[in-house]
Amino acid sequence: MDKVVFKSDLSEVNPQDLSGNGHNGTGTGIVAADDLVLSGIGIGTRYNGIDEKTSFGDIGLIRAISLWVNPDTDTEELVLIDTGKDIMVSGGTVTYTGITASATYIDGEPGTTLAAGTLQHLVCVLDADVDANTFQLATDGTNFGSVLLDEPIVFSDVITQIQAIDIMNRQRHGRLDGWRLTDPKFKVLDIPLNNNTVDSVTGLTATPTALTYTEGAYGKSVGVFDGADTKADVANNSNLQGLFNGGGTISALIKANGAGEINQGNVINKYNEYIIYLSVNKIRLYKYFSGTNGYWDSPNSSISYGGLYHVVVTYDSSSVTNDPVIYINGERVNVIESATPVGTSTTVADVFTIGNRKDSALSFDGQISLVKAHKMIATWDEVKVLHRMAKKGL
Length: 394
Hints:
By secondary structure, the protein is mainly beta. It contains 3 helices and 30 strands. The protein has helices at 32-35, 161-174, 380-390; strands at residues 4-7, 26-28, 36-38, 43-48, 53-57, 60-71, 76-82, 85-90, 93-97, 101-106, 109-110, 120-132, 135-137, 146-155, 187-191, 206-209, 212-215, 221-226, 231-234, 248-256, 264-270, 274-279, 282-287, 294-297, 308-315, 325-328, 331-333, 336-339, 352-354, 365-374.
């Protein structure tokens, strides 16, 4: 397994060849806002089965293919190697046309059964070198696959079962491990604020007050908060209440025009429980405790007015000795404990407000979108996934 012919993460409409061999791809019919989605290990491409595909041209002689696959049905097109030579799932079975496989591995095990609606790691080992003159994904040249694909790697060498397992584990755990970000056990809120205030999975709704929208940096609308009375309220629920007890994560994409009302423009305010706000030019997490409330800051000048920032805050409030971790644009920043908490973490059955406090006294001045909450402490790799999603308006 010495030679990687081609490698991509499919996180762009026109994905790059990460092997350095220059086999960059061209997407056909793919729309970033709709088709670049979390696959479970990173950001992949969901093809519609009608006219979408990614073409990489002539990538030379190949012997094995590794990729993550989640077909919508048990019969979908997967890979075109050359005219008349393709791989598909047919009736739930990986099927080869015009080529012969010496081995097929599904999630590291020998076999050809590929289930619909499930992300699986597929490795196809060919019995001889094949000239991949027209390498394409999600098509056989005529028909198209309704399928989510991610992390394709093409080799000029045979891959053993041990190597297939190693590739799977490295991609699943050693890179952008994003499966928890979409698991409803962990993902408890996703309010896009892109002309949409409804979480399509949980059904939670952010009720807006004086909220307007403008075109954001990544091709989608974003919420505009006026530094006065604009806000969006999400009713209390058991997941947002006590989010940080045992570990939680909140993220948002922000662009501040200024510090907001009384230099405390609130990004998130869970009334009398936790606040994430702009303290002049830094991010502050303020957490209520039974004795003394605690708060922590990112470095001074870590936020500049007019700049676009993806902010992620993770924290476990179950112990007063714990400190939060703050990430800005995918990078971890130093955190200063400005007040040490005393007592036990406070939970309150009250509203979760975006861009203000519930009484409209601490309005954010600028743009907020892509507000997400997870009942877990996101890893740095997961934060990078969130940042990459944010850069695509997701």
